[in-house]
Amino acid sequence: MIDNHPERIKLESGLARMGLDVPTGAIDGLLTYMVLLKEWSGTYNLVAKRERDFLLARHVLDSLSIARWLQPGSLLDVGTGRRFARLAVGHYQAGDGSHVARQRR
Fold first, then answer.
1. Integer CA distances (angstroms), 32 to 76, 94, 104, 105, in order
2. Which domain holds residue 66?
3. Per-residue pLDDT tens over the stretch 32-84
4. Dist CA 72 CA 93 (whole Å)
5. CA 24 to CA 3: how far, in whole Å?
6. Per the structure, how many domains does the chain have?
7. pTM for the structure as a whole
8. Which of 12, 28, 34, 80 has the fewest C-beta atoms under 10 angstroms from its C-beta?
9. Considering the domain boundaries, does residue 85 fall inside one?
10. Is residue 57 a part of any domain in this protein?
11. Is 97 a member of any domain?
12. For position 1, what pLDDT does the model report?
């Protein structure tokens, strides 16, 4: 399913333009997340209907645009809404010991 995902080429192209070498498993994870987010957004209003077609550019790639400058280790995610940045960067930095803190309500 993920291999033929229509957004895969756009995602891989965007990552290459940013100079990010992201493992295939992380790309698969980001694509799966996007599919699930779009699927469940109608039920739980996770992403506005008008924004669903822009998930890749406005959320995933925007979040990953800072990844080149992040040092391995701890990362503090403060106020990124639906935690797009935490998820995207988490996939990119998988296995480097990064942790993310967030406020519990």
1. 24, 16, 26, 27
2. 8-92
3. 888 888 888 888 877 778 877 888 888 888 888 888 887 766 666 665 555 66
4. 7
5. 10
6. 1
7. 0.72
8. 12
9. yes
10. yes
11. no
12. 47
